[in-house]
Amino acid sequence: MAEARDRHQRRTLILAAAVLASVLAAVLIVVTTAADLNQYRALRFPLGFYLLAQGLLIVIVAVSFWFSRRQDQIDEERDESEEL
Amino acid sequence: MSTHSRPRTPNPHLGAYYGIVTSAFLSLVIVLALFEQLGWQQMWLAPAMLIAPLLLYLAIAVAARTLNVEDFFVSGRRVPPVFNGLVMAAIVVGGTGFFAYAGTVFFLGFDALAIGLGWAAGMLAATVLFAPYLRKAGAYTVPAFLGHRFRSRPLRIMASLLQLPPMVLLLAAEMKVAALVATHFLPITYPLAVAAVGTIIAGIAIAGGMRALTWCGSAEFVVSALGLAVPLIVVSIMLTNLPAPQLTYGETFAPLQKSEITAGLTPAQPEELATALPAAAPRANTKPFLQPFGAIAMPDFLTLFLCLTLGTAALPSLLVRSGVTSSVTDQRRSGAWAALFVALFAATAPALAAFVKLLMFQDIAQFPATVPPTWLSDLSALKLVFARDVNGDGTIEAAELLIARDGVTLSLPAAAGLPFICILLTAAGGIAIALAAAAAHLFTLAGSAAEDLIRVVGREMTDLPRLVVAWVAIAAAALGTAVFLAIADVDLLQAAVTAFAFAAATFFSVLLLAIWWQRCTRLGAVLAMATGFAVMGGEIAFGDAFGSGQARFTTVIAALIGAILALIVGVAASLLGGAPSPAEAKYFEELRDPGGEALYDRAQRRAAARP
Fold it and tell me: How many Å apart are CA B350 and CA B112, to the nearest integer?
């Protein structure tokens, strides 16, 4: 029981930290390089503008849905091991 | 206690109901568009277009009326994730986003994107860090959760009082924007419009509490999405031949930059953050749209982003919706849906701003000042745009065209020469989302006052008195805010940013510690909240909150400093004080277990079973 719980807590914490850290890192990188990225084009937008206006939003939404599925799996595995 | 009177399955006909709501609203628009072509006067079209949706919301509220405590405070815990996502997105964006954010992007272009990005990232942070655990706890308000977690009634009362500033500011901003838009089109005065808005949101909240908020809020989100999307798609087809504004507005950048140069725009220099955010009063657009960090420097851009992220994640009126879904899993899913809807809005607002700027700047270069384009006289009549040939050179330049920040969204249909009904449609959409957000803030504020301040004193309250107290609190809070609006001049954007800053400084750290750190003690939680609030309060009272004043110590920076200090103080006080009590440790243990019933519901059931 306790082992399954600790394992579940550890994995939950790692997932949360990984999700938030990667989104934060992506935002930091794009914001600091945005002015330079603007010389490239994406869908006829300057790239830096495009990433801030849409690219990062798409990343955030995708990560939200992925996180919700991944955390469900982690929770289910705890349920299963506790039932054993 | 009749907490388990009904099964937790959502109504299977919800999709059909909202299909009907959507098509009813669209038919209204089409019928009125026909009447406009047949020569109906604007004075008849405006009431029909703006008041009919209000009747729809009130009808939904009446249909969702309830006398059940669980329905009233957590919508019966059976809201499907998509619908909860709709309402959460409406709360985050609100009328402030619909009008003030679009206006900010219009004036600052690139630099304003920090705000939309902050909202979406904050939704993600709330979903990862807080919402699922609050669902497991099942408390009806955020202060109640903190009170249960630390087994402390004073802590609960303190949290309820500290959430007043952000909630009152947001409520006032949303009520104001709904009232202002109404006064543009209906023959009513501003105080009367504020009173009407207050009555409507209080009526919705009293009739069905959280249940009515959920179902009205979903309808209001649909109306606001149509109000934003329909004119924008039409303009997108006119300008780029494709009905997907978010994908195609990049094409308009080349002509936009050209017309900016013709209109006399030169690259701007970054200002201090406090003064860089545009105020509501009509002003000239002086920054090229695409210039990066021309108004807000890069460090300030990041500060603004982080402040809105933390503030959104810890916003009480958003987190209070963590109890309404049927499970922890559904709560996470609804957070992801909300992030999607917020992101859709945040991706759409820049398209709108770019289109408005292109249409306006293209035209003013071509027309002599003596014969202004039709949209200019139309929008001048609505007091949204002012133009005067100051230097007398015969043309209107960018510096001579003054535009109201909150009128940019409404200007789009007019600037594109669309029929009057399209302006009304956008106005109806803006009023809808402002009402959804206002009702949510009102309910959070008043529900907490009723549950955490009044009921904590009289514990043995049964269902009906509990609801009566909440009704009185809702009516009192609506009245109080209406009076506040009559006295104080609230700027939407400043009020919203300050509210998010308060939420970030006061609640982010304490929630983080309460949910993620078993060792956090009552003392640590109290001091963390007090520290964050004191830093923000000090900034508002002594620093210069809204610009003009000293140094770079502005609201958003104060919010981040407050949140960090709160975290440090909370950790230090927890470690230095005694260990948490066994009851707190047990509550934390159960909070972290995703399975099983909501802790609050279980406690209620056990209390009811006791002889």
Answer: 9
Q: Quote the DSSP letter at residue B597.
A: S
Could you say which residues of chain B have pLDDT below 70? 1-7, 273-274, 456-461, 543-553, 611
Which residues of chain B make contact with A16, given a CB cutoff of 8 A?
A: 128-129
Give the best residue of A22, A38, A44 to mutate against chain B (max B CB count within 10 A): A44
Residue B117, chain A, CB below 8 Å: the answer is: yes
C-alpha closest to that of B210 among B312, B162, B141? B141
For A7, the token pair is 């394992």
Instruction: Say how many CB pairs under 8 Å bridge A and B.
Output: 107
Q: Which residues of A touch B332 (CB under 8 A)?
A: 67-68, 71-72
Condensed to tens digits (0 to 9), the pLDDT of residues B85-128 reads 999 999 999 999 999 999 999 999 899 999 999 999 999 999 99
DSSP for B474-525 reads: HHHHHHHHHHHHHHS---HHHHHHHHHHHHIIIIIHHHHHHHH-TT--HHHH
Centroid of chain to Cα A51: 16
CA-based torsion, B127, B129, B131, B136: positive or negative:
positive
Q: How far is A84 from chain B (nearest CA, A)?
A: 15
pLDDT for A84 equals 62
For residue B459, the distance in angstroms to the closest alpha carbon of chain A comes to: 35
Q: Is B586 on the interface with A (CB under 8 A)?
A: no
Does A22 lie at the interface with B, CB-CB under 8 angstroms? Answer: no
Q: Which residues of A touch B302 (CB under 8 A)?
A: 28, 31
Please report where in the chains the tokens 């021309």 appear, as a residue: B294
B349 contacts: CB under 8 Å, gap ≥ 6: B97, B101, B102, B105, B116
Backbone angles phi, psi at B480, to 5 degrees: -60, -45
Residue of B nearest to A80 (CA): B595
- Does residue A26 sit at the B interface (CB-CB below 8 Å)? no
Count CB-CB contacts under 10 A for residue B2.
12
Query: In this predicted structure, what is the pLDDT of residue B5?
Result: 43
Mean pLDDT for chain A? Answer: 90
Spatial CA neighbour of A19 closest among B124, B68, B485, B49:
B124
Residue B120 CA from chain centroid, whole number: 12
pLDDT-flagged residues of chain A (< 70) = 1, 84
Q: Which residues of chain B make contact with A61, given a CB cutoff of 8 A? A: 120, 336, 339-340, 343
Q: Taking the model in full, what pTM does it have?
A: 0.93
Where helices occur in B263-327 by DSSP H, the ranges are: 273-276, 298-313, 316-319
- HSE at residue B265, side-chain half, CA atoms within 13 A, is 27
A24 neighbourhood in chain B, CB within 8 Å: 121
